Amino acid sequence: MKSFFKTFFASFLGSAVLLIVLVILLIGSFVSSVAKSSETNVTLKPKTVLYMNLNYDIPERTNKNSLEMYFNIDDIDMAGMNDILNNIDAAATDSNIEGIFLDLSMIGTSSANIEELRNRLISFKESGKFIISYSETYSQSAYYLASVSDKIYMLPDGILDIHGMASQSMFYKHLLEKLDIEMQIIRPANNKFKSAVEPYFLDEMSEANKEQTSVLLNSIWNKICNDISVARNIDVNTINQMADDLTLMFNSQAAVEYGFVDELIYKDELLAKLHELTNTPDNKKLNIIKNTQYAKVRPELYKGEDKIAIVYASGQIFDGEGDDNKIGSTTLSAALRQARNDNKVKAIVMRVNSPGGSAVASEVIRREVELAAKEKPVIVSMGNYAASGGYWISSTADYIFADPNTLTGSIGVFGTIPNFEGFLNDKIGLTFDEVKTNKNSDFGTLSKPLSPYQMTMMQKHVTETYDNFITLVSETRGLRKTFVDSIAQGRVWSGTDALEIGLVDELGGIDKAIAYAADKAGLTSYSIKEFPKQKDPFEDLFKTETQEYYTKAVMKNNLGSSYKYLEAIENISRIEGIQALMPMVVVE
Q: Which of 494, 414, 392 is nearest to 187 (CA)?
């Protein structure tokens, strides 16, 4: 008994000490971050360079309440797309800003958002101010953005990674077979392009999936090559040759020789160039301001009592509550209602960046878009993705903008119900028995397969959901239903191709969507109001969802690009009911 109490109190004391340390760390981090964030007296000096390091997972909008802001040990600038784009616009006319320095190695966003950033930087150059880029190693996506710079610099032994694009799928059919798990797939017979479920029953991509992926990748890659060609005056054939041979990855001199990079220099030489560009004496410190700092002091871009609401729809679509990284039908529907009922809001721009998700949740959100569109202009701005459920919630808007490299369409649905009978019975020795009141009281149980009747009913429901989807698109887009069916079937399209087949109205970023909304509402001056309201993280600190989010953030940081595959598996397995989800992972 004595040893028990000794062990107990030792464990208790250890836990108590750990808890105290954690509390001290929490308070210390909070106090220091408040001190850091309360440096709102950021002073903007003349001859300042706007510094942009985009080597992080860029959200659609800056989350000023995020715990990442409090525990950002490396002091990484975590600005969202909204602040980055607004900063570029403001810097163009700000007399204190001399130019922009892009410090790039990789960019945590996809080609559609990168293209939107590129277009803003191209507009910025009309001001006559400089843009220079520097990196020790340029990823392909980072170089795509850097290509608009006046000068591109790289470390003498640096790497320029241009290799083309690929889309990889991971198949777990044989894993399920080894575990004796059957994944029961229900999808419309003609949804041949809806390949999200292929990994369950195939060990390689179907011909239909290869076809759609090839068309999609080539559309995006051709756009990237053409943009680089124009910006750097390099023949497209040369770009493709370099990608085929991996020449630039292993020969930094070739990057200069072929015109991809202007000069190979060290960081101290770069700083000397910045001193020269800003006319700052070498013995004086450069005036540098980061994105999140500049967002606090930049000139106002939008002024006016009337408002345009920007409603952010970012992440996979689920039933219930959502946040900045997940679309919850309850949260987003409430945000749309608030914007609709706000008398000062004269138009709504819904920024959609979603691969889809729950069909039921998508329809709940779409209904709120429909109601809002009856009272004021509702314009959709598509980001990296607006596919499947992401397209579903966009379809009722008055007008749809997409970037050329947006992944959209994927009009199709499927359902999955796993059968663990073999695994439970034969692998781990568990058996089940049951008593039920009705014939199908056991529907949805994981311990045995669906009955033929249950499978028939599920198939009927999935087919009807798909028919509802294409009917919706036919009516909202003014297209024949038979034509919609021919371009649907789960197929993913680039924004450029989506424009040609009538799924979107115009190519352009969120700036064009806002301008169009203002014109439709008859506004000449207006301010911006963002929805949904961002949560205080300390209110939700001990909630499961909050802990889950930051656990994922750590995993994403450690796994890098490999995290996409883990996330794809998890996303499919988490949704209940009929799923309207984009089927692929694109590797850039």
A: 414
